[in-house]
Amino acid sequence: MKIGIIGLGLIGGSVGLCLRDMKLIDRVYGSDMSKENESLALNLGLVDEIITFDKMKEICDVIFLAIPVEAIVETLQNLKDIKNTTTIIELGSTKEKIISSCPKEIRANLVAAHPMAGTENSGPKAAFKTLLQKAVVVICNDDDTANLHAKRAIEIFSYAGMKIVFMDAKKHDHHVALISHLPHVISYSLVNSVLKEENKRNIINLAGGSFSDVSRIAKSSPEMWSDIFKQNKENVLNSISSFKKELDFCQKLIEDEKWQELTRWLYEARIIRDFL
After folding, report:
1. Same domain, 135 and 180
2. Counting beta carbons within 10 angstroms of the beta carbon of residue 239, is it exposed (0 to 12), middle (13 to 18) or buried (19 or more)?
3. Which of 12, 52, 122, 147 is the most buried (most CB within 10 A)?
């Protein structure tokens, strides 16, 4: 099986490293808008060879789209002429818009998958072989995907050691807005608020584990996350509203000096220790 990967950053590069070790994969090809990324990916062994987009469409059995979600929508329009035996696996963090934007000519080729894995780092140098291992991958609206392509994707993800979960695209976007997208909104907001109130010296001297933990994901790619917030706008806004209600409630308890009630509210959040 010949694999093509469009986008050679953290996710695409990690997919390449993982797939190159699989016996069912003959060769891994790569393509990226950045020539520097292509050169790095080749030197780091993320892919076997760099080829053009048109060549990838011609020779690859499977094409992974590991690019920002808006770019996925655009790229799908340029894949309308692929063979019906070519599998497209898009790895975006949103699903409804991507699936609805997919040209009808290739909807059966498309596997809409979201690997729940990543770090705050980006680019080819951030990629590592075990990123996907034991991670969950969500496959959405697979009923509209041809059996050949669904089976291929499941086989690849299984070989990669991933746990596969099937979900409706609308539910996926709702859930990830709360569990994945909202934490990024909070992290960016926290860092921006602290930067406006504190100088860098105080941040360096006083930032302990709590600030470092919450601010870590604010180091993620702004372009990528801006696209995600755009595509999942309504769900992200709803999740922000829910969070603001809890924040306002906490503020009111502190203002009114309701310390016992505040303690009970804090204990409610500790339930997460039972399952995470």
Report:
1. no
2. buried
3. 12
Tokens of 94: 């949103």
What proportions of the chain, in percent to the nearest 5, are helix, strand and coil? 60, 15, 30
Tokens of 138: 């969500």
Do 143 and 177 reside in the same domain of the chain?
no
Per-residue pLDDT tens digits for 184-199? 999 999 999 999 988 8
Which CATH number do you get for residue 234? 1.10.3660.10
Query: No. of H helices and E strands in the chain?
Result: 13, 8
State mean pLDDT over 223-243. 97
Given 134, 167, 200, the domain boundary residue is 167
Residues in the chain: 276
User: How many angstroms separate the CA atoms of 101 and 92, rounded?
Assistant: 13
Please state, in angstroms and rounded to a whole number, the distance separating the CA atoms of residues 19 and 30. Answer: 12
